[in-house]
Amino acid sequence: MTDGGSSIPAVQALLRVLATGRDVAEFGTAFGEGTAAIAETARSVVTVELDPQRVAIARDRLAGLENVEAIEGDAYELLRGRGPFGLVFVDGGVYDWERILELLEPGGLLVKDDLTPGRAVEGDPVREFLLRDRRLAAVEILTTPQSAAIVALRRS
Ligand SMILES: C[S@@+](CC[C@H](N)C(=O)[O-])C[C@H]1O[C@@H](n2cnc3c(N)ncnc32)[C@H](O)[C@@H]1O
Protein backbone atom coordinates (compact mmCIF):
# COMPACT_ATOMS: atom_id res chain seq x y z
CA MET A 1 0.00 0.00 0.00
CA THR A 2 3.02 2.26 0.30
CA ASP A 3 3.01 3.33 -3.30
CA GLY A 4 3.83 6.76 -4.65
CA GLY A 5 6.31 9.31 -3.41
CA SER A 6 5.92 12.99 -2.62
CA SER A 7 4.26 15.46 -4.97
CA ILE A 8 6.62 17.41 -7.21
CA PRO A 9 7.45 21.11 -6.62
CA ALA A 10 5.24 22.31 -9.51
CA VAL A 11 2.21 20.54 -8.04
CA GLN A 12 3.00 21.87 -4.58
CA ALA A 13 3.18 25.40 -6.02
CA LEU A 14 -0.21 24.89 -7.70
CA LEU A 15 -1.74 23.56 -4.47
CA ARG A 16 -0.34 26.50 -2.49
CA VAL A 17 -2.24 28.91 -4.72
CA LEU A 18 -5.48 26.92 -5.04
CA ALA A 19 -5.67 26.22 -1.29
CA THR A 20 -5.59 29.87 -0.27
CA GLY A 21 -8.19 30.53 2.43
CA ARG A 22 -9.89 27.18 1.87
CA ASP A 23 -10.65 24.12 3.97
CA VAL A 24 -8.74 21.30 2.27
CA ALA A 25 -8.86 17.48 2.28
CA GLU A 26 -5.98 15.36 1.01
CA PHE A 27 -6.29 11.67 0.06
CA GLY A 28 -2.85 10.14 0.68
CA THR A 29 -0.49 12.12 2.92
CA ALA A 30 2.63 10.05 2.17
CA PHE A 31 5.43 11.97 3.96
CA GLY A 32 3.51 15.22 4.39
CA GLU A 33 5.29 17.26 1.73
CA GLY A 34 2.13 18.19 -0.19
CA THR A 35 0.31 18.79 3.08
CA ALA A 36 2.99 21.23 4.22
CA ALA A 37 2.68 23.22 0.99
CA ILE A 38 -1.13 23.34 1.28
CA ALA A 39 -0.95 24.34 4.95
CA GLU A 40 1.04 27.47 4.05
CA THR A 41 -2.11 29.10 2.62
CA ALA A 42 -5.13 26.96 3.57
CA ARG A 43 -7.49 27.73 6.44
CA SER A 44 -7.40 24.06 7.43
CA VAL A 45 -6.08 20.75 6.06
CA VAL A 46 -7.24 17.26 6.93
CA THR A 47 -4.99 14.63 5.40
CA VAL A 48 -5.37 10.85 5.54
CA GLU A 49 -2.76 8.12 4.97
CA LEU A 50 -3.16 4.34 5.09
CA ASP A 51 0.45 3.42 5.83
CA PRO A 52 1.29 3.78 9.57
CA GLN A 53 5.01 4.28 8.94
CA ARG A 54 4.28 7.11 6.53
CA VAL A 55 1.82 8.63 8.99
CA ALA A 56 4.55 8.73 11.65
CA ILE A 57 7.01 10.46 9.30
CA ALA A 58 4.34 12.91 8.16
CA ARG A 59 3.33 13.77 11.72
CA ASP A 60 6.95 14.68 12.49
CA ARG A 61 7.15 16.75 9.31
CA LEU A 62 3.90 18.55 10.09
CA ALA A 63 4.41 19.01 13.83
CA GLY A 64 3.53 22.50 14.98
CA LEU A 65 1.31 23.32 12.01
CA GLU A 66 -1.89 24.21 13.83
CA ASN A 67 -4.14 24.12 10.76
CA VAL A 68 -3.24 20.48 9.93
CA GLU A 69 -5.00 17.31 11.08
CA ALA A 70 -3.11 14.16 9.98
CA ILE A 71 -5.15 10.97 10.32
CA GLU A 72 -4.19 7.32 9.84
CA GLY A 73 -6.57 5.11 7.87
CA ASP A 74 -8.60 4.87 4.70
CA ALA A 75 -9.39 8.33 3.36
CA TYR A 76 -12.67 7.16 1.84
CA GLU A 77 -13.93 5.96 5.20
CA LEU A 78 -12.51 8.68 7.39
CA LEU A 79 -13.49 11.66 5.24
CA ARG A 80 -17.06 10.46 4.67
CA GLY A 81 -19.49 12.94 6.18
CA ARG A 82 -16.80 15.58 6.71
CA GLY A 83 -16.50 18.86 4.87
CA PRO A 84 -17.66 20.30 2.61
CA PHE A 85 -14.19 21.24 1.45
CA GLY A 86 -13.05 24.06 -0.82
CA LEU A 87 -10.23 21.94 -2.22
CA VAL A 88 -9.74 18.17 -2.40
CA PHE A 89 -6.32 16.85 -3.43
CA VAL A 90 -6.89 13.29 -4.62
CA ASP A 91 -3.51 11.63 -4.37
CA GLY A 92 -4.05 8.06 -3.20
CA GLY A 93 -6.58 5.25 -3.34
CA VAL A 94 -8.97 3.87 -5.89
CA TYR A 95 -10.67 7.08 -7.08
CA ASP A 96 -14.32 6.68 -6.18
CA TRP A 97 -15.25 9.95 -7.85
CA GLU A 98 -18.87 10.12 -6.64
CA ARG A 99 -17.74 9.90 -3.04
CA ILE A 100 -15.03 12.47 -3.64
CA LEU A 101 -17.50 14.86 -5.28
CA GLU A 102 -19.78 14.64 -2.22
CA LEU A 103 -17.01 16.23 -0.18
CA LEU A 104 -16.70 19.32 -2.38
CA GLU A 105 -18.63 22.53 -1.77
CA PRO A 106 -20.13 24.31 -4.82
CA GLY A 107 -17.27 26.25 -6.38
CA GLY A 108 -14.84 23.89 -4.69
CA LEU A 109 -11.77 22.61 -6.49
CA LEU A 110 -10.40 19.12 -7.04
CA VAL A 111 -6.80 18.39 -8.03
CA LYS A 112 -5.58 15.09 -9.51
CA ASP A 113 -1.88 14.92 -10.38
CA ASP A 114 0.48 12.19 -11.58
CA LEU A 115 -1.09 11.92 -15.05
CA THR A 116 0.83 11.06 -18.20
CA PRO A 117 0.27 13.82 -20.77
CA GLY A 118 -1.03 13.20 -24.24
CA ARG A 119 -3.33 10.27 -23.44
CA ALA A 120 -6.84 10.03 -24.92
CA VAL A 121 -9.83 10.84 -22.74
CA GLU A 122 -11.79 7.82 -23.99
CA GLY A 123 -10.89 4.68 -22.10
CA ASP A 124 -9.19 6.59 -19.28
CA PRO A 125 -11.61 6.52 -16.31
CA VAL A 126 -9.88 9.40 -14.52
CA ARG A 127 -10.03 11.72 -17.52
CA GLU A 128 -13.49 10.57 -18.58
CA PHE A 129 -14.94 11.51 -15.21
CA LEU A 130 -13.04 14.69 -14.47
CA LEU A 131 -13.05 16.20 -17.97
CA ARG A 132 -16.53 15.05 -19.11
CA ASP A 133 -18.83 15.12 -16.07
CA ARG A 134 -21.27 18.02 -16.44
CA ARG A 135 -21.12 18.85 -12.72
CA LEU A 136 -17.49 19.88 -13.19
CA ALA A 137 -15.56 22.44 -15.21
CA ALA A 138 -12.05 21.07 -15.64
CA VAL A 139 -8.73 21.59 -17.36
CA GLU A 140 -5.68 19.36 -17.81
CA ILE A 141 -2.35 21.18 -17.46
CA LEU A 142 1.28 20.15 -17.78
CA THR A 143 3.18 20.19 -14.50
CA THR A 144 6.45 19.20 -16.23
CA PRO A 145 7.00 18.16 -19.88
CA GLN A 146 6.43 14.56 -18.72
CA SER A 147 3.59 14.95 -16.23
CA ALA A 148 0.14 16.49 -16.05
CA ALA A 149 -2.59 17.34 -13.58
CA ILE A 150 -6.30 18.03 -13.81
CA VAL A 151 -7.91 20.91 -11.91
CA ALA A 152 -11.69 20.60 -11.72
CA LEU A 153 -14.24 23.02 -10.22
CA ARG A 154 -17.60 21.80 -8.90
CA ARG A 155 -20.22 23.97 -10.62
CA SER A 156 -23.06 23.57 -8.09
C1 LIG B 1 1.43 9.75 -4.24
S1 LIG B 1 1.44 9.39 -2.54
C2 LIG B 1 0.84 10.89 -1.81
C3 LIG B 1 1.79 12.09 -1.95
C4 LIG B 1 1.39 13.29 -1.11
N1 LIG B 1 0.01 13.65 -1.30
C5 LIG B 1 2.26 14.50 -1.43
O1 LIG B 1 1.74 15.49 -1.98
O2 LIG B 1 3.45 14.46 -1.16
C6 LIG B 1 0.02 8.33 -2.36
C7 LIG B 1 -0.23 7.86 -0.92
O3 LIG B 1 -1.60 7.45 -0.82
C8 LIG B 1 -1.67 6.44 0.17
N2 LIG B 1 -2.99 5.78 0.02
C9 LIG B 1 -3.37 4.87 -0.91
N3 LIG B 1 -4.67 4.55 -0.75
C10 LIG B 1 -5.12 5.29 0.31
C11 LIG B 1 -6.39 5.40 0.97
N4 LIG B 1 -7.46 4.71 0.58
N5 LIG B 1 -6.48 6.27 2.02
C12 LIG B 1 -5.39 6.97 2.43
N6 LIG B 1 -4.18 6.90 1.85
C13 LIG B 1 -4.05 6.07 0.80
C14 LIG B 1 -0.43 5.58 -0.13
O4 LIG B 1 -0.08 4.79 0.99
C15 LIG B 1 0.61 6.65 -0.49
O5 LIG B 1 1.39 7.02 0.63
Word description of this protein:
It is a single chain. The chain is built from 6 helices and 7 strands; from the N terminus they run αβαβαβαβαβαββ. It has one domain (9-154): Vaccinia Virus protein VP39 (Rossmann fold, 3-Layer(aba) Sandwich), CATH 3.40.50.150. By secondary structure, the chain is an alpha/beta fold. It is 29% helix and 33% strand. The mean pLDDT is 96. Strand 6 (136-144) and strand 7 form a beta hairpin. Bound molecules: S-adenosylmethionine.
Notable traits:
alpha/beta, Rossmann fold, 6 helices, globular
Summarize the topology:
Layout: H1 9-18, E1 23-27, H2 33-39, E2 44-49, H3 52-62, E3 68-72, H4 75-78, E4 85-90, H5 97-102, E5 104-115, H6 125-132, E6 136-144, E7 147-154
Parallel strand pairs: 1-2, 1-4, 2-3, 4-5
Antiparallel strand pairs: 5-7, 6-7
The structure holds S-adenosylmethionine (SAM).
S-adenosylmethionine binds at residues 1-4, 6-7, 26-30, 33-34, 48-51, 54, 74-76, 91-93.
